[in-house]
Amino acid sequence: MNIKRIFGSVLTILGIASLIYTAVLFTNSTTNNHAVKSLITFGILGFIFFISGIGLIRMIKDEA
What we know:
Blueprint: H1 3-28, H2 33-59
Helix pairs in contact: 1-2
């Protein structure tokens, strides 16, 4: 197994989990200032992790 591919998979899973957590916070949030900051923070971090994980997996070539 390639360590970069494993790291890319972990980043992708963390990104998906963070985006799901953001969706849960969004559905359960009231309009207070703390909830908005959490939504923005987790959403941006989840998006960054997801995109970088997918990019890392795509960049690695399979070599036999």
